Amino acid sequence: MNKTKEVSVGLFDAIVHHDKPPLNWLGGGYYFTMTMVLMQFGHFVLLNHYGVVGYFIYMLLVAIFITLDGFVSTSMGKNIVNLRLNGYSDKFILFTMVFNCLGSQALTLLIIHFIGNPQAMHDLLLLSTYSTPMIMAVAANLIATEVLFFAAHKFLHEHWPSIHIMHHCCMNPSHSTNLIFHPIDLAIEFAGPGSIILLNHYTIWQQNLHVLLLSYMIMQIYYAIDHSEWLRTYHFKHHSQLNAVYTIYANYRSTPQLDKLRSLVIKPSKNT
């Protein structure tokens, strides 16, 4: 079972802070910069050059940084409290985080290492790689991902809120929120954007590796930063306010009256 009937204690007790967390001085811009550096190191070095071995090293580093999230800010701890309040056990939360991390980065490994190659990744660091047609192709890919993400996200809020509620228990988004999804939810929201980039690669863009790699990495980086408590993007506010902005890149508000999820989330009391 993935749910319990009462707020429990368990695996995540160490990160539930009622006062200032022990590594508070690392929070904000410092921690954000560290996560971005790790992501680029993972993409351009570990996955790119070392393949499967690099993948497991990268996963270990990601686990360390996700754990660190719980010690630089109170946000992850607050989300854990709210997840428990809504019936999710610590074991299930941990399982989903590990599963989602391994699964999402397996796709990244496929695209960067097995479809792409080190030369194509190196080319992305050269200004001469960027032509107008390439930039337009990447823009077209990102527009397609936005449309598909919006459709999937809207569907979850209006027609299948029970599978999406776990993610929205994170009303204080932080870096760890990127992994707190029911696995079916993650598949619905991100299968479309990931698939359209691959489909376009083989059907429209004549297997241009630069377009594929840049499109995918921009998408993944932006999806990672959209929960940043330092940047506080539109999507951050979507969590904290439970509003009807179902897009990622744009600030487009859908019809809030159709949202069935907002009323389902049990919110913690002020003194929780």
Automatic annotation (TrEMBL):
<keyword id="KW-0812">Transmembrane</keyword>
<feature type="transmembrane region" description="Helical">
    <location>
        <begin position="135"/>
        <end position="156"/>
    </location>
</feature>
<keyword id="KW-0472">Membrane</keyword>
<protein>
    <recommendedName>
        <fullName>Fatty acid hydroxylase domain-containing protein</fullName>
    </recommendedName>
</protein>
<feature type="transmembrane region" description="Helical">
    <location>
        <begin position="28"/>
        <end position="46"/>
    </location>
</feature>
<feature type="transmembrane region" description="Helical">
    <location>
        <begin position="92"/>
        <end position="115"/>
    </location>
</feature>
<feature type="transmembrane region" description="Helical">
    <location>
        <begin position="52"/>
        <end position="72"/>
    </location>
</feature>
<keyword id="KW-1133">Transmembrane helix</keyword>
